[in-house]
Write a structure and sequence with these properties.
The chain is an alpha+beta fold. It is built from three helices and six strands; from the N terminus they run αβββαβαββ. The radius of gyration is 18 Å and the shape is globular.
């Protein structure tokens, strides 16, 4: 092996390779029990013509639900659709044996929404130059 160099940026193939190597290491160091196999939790909010109005992208792993993205188009916000997506994801997680859920959200996004739905803040990152805060939330299921 020659001298190692640092390069900025990466291809999609390189991104996948790096993620796969980290996941392989994690699974080797802390293998999940058979009933804790990782799986996705994905929900779509659409009308009967198939127009997309929102969705939730999450992951179930090690007995928990991680909510990566929950989005509802601005025109449909306030109609209970975000709550419906959240409750359905939690239902899927409970059926999979999860005992808690966690996520993060920025101060300009939806911390109050998650608090109203039973999530509690366990950490806040408040070092952004523009005053934005990132909230880390959890909920026992």
């Amino acid at each position: 092996m020659g001298r190692l160099i640092l390069r900025r940026g990466m291809t999609e193939t390189e991104d996948t390779y790096i993620r796969d190597r980290l996941m392989a290491y994690n699974l080797r160091m802390a293998p999940p029990a058979q009933d804790y196999a990782s799986k996705s939790a994905e929900l779509v909010l659409e009308d009967d013509q198939g127009t997309l109005y929102g969705g939730l992208i999450g992951k179930i792993y090690r007995g928990c639900l991680f909510i990566d993205i929950l989005w509802v188009c601005e025109e449909q916000r306030g109609g209970g659709y975000g709550k419906a997506l959240l409750l359905e994801a939690e239902k899927i997680a409970k059926e999979a044996g999860c005992s808690f859920a966690h996520l993060d959200t920025f101060s300009f996004q939806a911390p109050a929404f998650y608090h109203k739905n039973g999530y509690e803040t366990y950490g806040v990152l408040d070092l952004y130059k523009d005053g934005t805060k990132r909230f880390y939330l959890k909920k026992k299921l």
